[in-house]
């Protein structure tokens, strides 16, 4: 099976390039299963119901997220009915939504888990404890984790800890792609950060003018999503006999 995992989709530029290019990617890469991080898809922060439907209509199987998942208030309601829109599993348990899901496709039980880092992020429960308990009870054939975290070292350490216990761990959140995609020694596919699917000429998605102004002056500034043309950043992971065989970066306009 070929898995396409799409990095943080940012606002209209991200949606536009995805709508334009995704059908060709699916055909060219012979994609069987799509995971996309949608936490920035609605005006740069959060995901509304319309944009959830947009991704599902494009063929996305599971939508992951991160610290911005509930920035749009309506998400607190519709996430209760959309089991394939994940919020980080280690957020407060009182919050609605799933942190992990198992989907049967091509005769295989595929688990996708979304978790958030503990370093330099909003408060969340301990990532290791949550995943330890989940893996102990899990009987899925394939397990892919979207680790939404700020610190590169935290993502790398987490991947090494679960090397051989999960199929793949991909990092999201920083919006900057890393060039360290690889199969770890015990067989887990890994990349520190997939990068952003959104406007190229931007500062991690935002219009540069406002970001530079805040950086130079320190004054409170509302960032606006850049409307410049977008680029898709993603990875394609090939899984054979329930094991990751390869991982490659994909970057296209």
UniProtKB/TrEMBL annotation:
Fe cation 2 binds at residues 39, 67, 148, 173. Pfam families: YmdB (PF13277). It comes from the Bacteria. Fe cation 1 binds at residues 8, 39-40, 175. The keyword Oxidoreductase does not apply. The active site is at 68 (proton donor). Keywords: Metal-binding. This is Metallophosphatase. It comes from Spiroplasma helicoides.
């Amino acid at each position: 099976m070929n898995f396409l995992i799409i990095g943080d989709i940012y606002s209209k530029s991200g949606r536009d390039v995805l709508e334009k290019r995704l059908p060709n990617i699916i055909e060219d890469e012979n994609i069987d299963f799509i995971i996309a991080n949608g936490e920035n898809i609605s005006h740069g922060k959060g995901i509304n119901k319309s944009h959830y439907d947009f991704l599902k209509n494009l063929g996305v199987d599971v939508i992951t997220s991160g610290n911005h998942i509930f920035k749009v208030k309506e998400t607190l309601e519709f996430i209760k009915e959309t089991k394939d829109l994940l919020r980080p599993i280690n957020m407060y348990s009182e919050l609605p939504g799933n942190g992990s899901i198992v989907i049967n496709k091509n005769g295989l039980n595929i688990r996708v888990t979304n978790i958030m880092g503990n370093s330099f992020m909003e408060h969340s429960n301990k990532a290791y404890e949550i995943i330890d308990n989940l893996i102990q009870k899990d009987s899925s054939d394939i397990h892919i984790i979207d680790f939404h975290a700020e610190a590169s070292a935290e993502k790398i350490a987490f991947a090494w800890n679960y090397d051989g216990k999960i199929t793949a761990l991909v990092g999201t959140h920083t919006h900057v792609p890393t060039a360290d995609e690889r199969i770890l020694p015990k067989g887990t596919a890994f990349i520190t950060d997939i990068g952003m699917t959104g406007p190229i000429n931007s500062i991690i998605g935002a219009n540069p003018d406002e970001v530079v102004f805040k950086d130079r002056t320190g004054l409170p500034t509302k960032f606006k999503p850049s409307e410049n043309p977008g680029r898709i950043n993603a990875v394609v992971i090939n899984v054979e006999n329930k094991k990751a065989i390869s991982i490659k970066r994909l970057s296209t306009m």
